[in-house]
Amino acid sequence: MGLTAQSSGVNLLRESFNIDGDKNNPVVALAGNPNTGKSTVFNGLTGLKQHTGNWPGKTVTQAKGYYTYLSQEYTVVDLPGTYSLLASSIEEQIARDFICFAQPEVTVVIADATNLERNLNLLLQVTELSERVVLCLNLMDEAERKNIKIDLNGLATDLQVPIVPTIARDEKGLSDLKKVIDKIVNQEVQLDPIKIKYSSKIEEKVEKIVPELNKQFPNLRKNINIRWLALRLLEGDRTIFETLEECYDVNLKNKKVVERRQ
Ligand SMILES: Nc1nc2c(ncn2[C@@H]2O[C@H](COP(=O)(O)OP(=O)(O)OP(=O)(O)O)[C@@H](O)[C@H]2O)c(=O)[nH]1
Ligand SMILES: [Mg+2]
C-alpha cells in the first residue's frame, strides 16, 4: 500500500491547516520561490477542481485543488512563494509549517530553470525537512531561449531527487510530474536526497541536542524531523515554539534543552 495520511497519523493536523484530513488523499505541496510558475503548475494539475480561501488565522491566500491519476485522487496545495523556510515572514512560516507538520506525501519544489542557483537554496531547505521531494524545473522554454543548458542527469545524481523539466504555461511536462508523484506515493522510487552537513561546531551541538529532544519529547519523533528541529533551536528560531505549542501542546520554552544554549 502507498503512503496515506492515515498511516502517518496527521489527519487532524491537516484539518487544522484547512486540508481535508478526512479525505485521505495523498497531499502534494507545491513550494517555490516567487514567480517560478507555482500557480501555473497548480492550475495545470487541478484544472477547475480548486478552491481558494485563506490559511487558517492568516490573511494569506490558500489555494487547494484536486486531480485524479490512475484512479487515485490527490489533493494539491499551492504554498506561498518563498525564498527560504526560515520563517522570517508569514509566508515562509506557512510554507515551513505545512511541510513540517502537515507532512505532505510529496513536496514539489518548483524552480526557475533560468535561475537555478538561487532556487536550489529552497530545495536544500525542503530536503532537510522531508525526503519525499521532486524538483520541477519550470520555465525550460526561457532557459532554452537564453541558451542555458542544464545537465538533468548530473543534477539528479548530485541532488538525489527526481527532476521533472516543465513548461507549465504550455502544460508541458505535467503528466510526467503526475507520474513521478504517483511513484513516490506508491514507494516505487528510492528517495535519499542530499543533506547539508554543517561545520563540526554545529554538528557537534546537533548531536547533543537530538538525543535530548528524543528523550524529552518521545512522541515528537514520529511527527517531525528531530535533526531539523535541533538546527532551528540552535538558530534561535522562536516561531517554531508557537507552532509546536499549537500543534502538539508541548512547551519547549521551559525545557533545559533550550536553556543550555543560552
Ligand atoms: N515562459 C514561461 N512562462 C511561464 C511558465 N510557467 C509560468 N509562466 C509565467 O510566469 C508568470 C508567473 O507564473 P505564476 O504561476 O503566477 O508564478 P507563481 O510562482 O505562482 O508566482 P507567485 O505566486 O507570485 O509566487 C506568469 O506570467 C506565467 O504565465 C513557463 O513554463 N514558461
Ligand atoms: Mg502563485
TrEMBL record:
Span of the signal peptide: none
A family per Pfam: FeoB_Cyto
Alphabetical list of InterPro entries matching this protein: FeoB_Cyto, FeoB_GTPase, G_FEOB_dom, GTP-bd, P-loop_NTPase
GO cellular component, one term: plasma membrane
SUPFAM superfamilies xrefs: P-loop containing nucleoside triphosphate hydrolases (SSF52540)
Domain FeoB-type G: 25-187
Protein name listed in UniProt: Fe2+ transport system protein B
Organism, scientific name: Halanaerobacter jeridensis
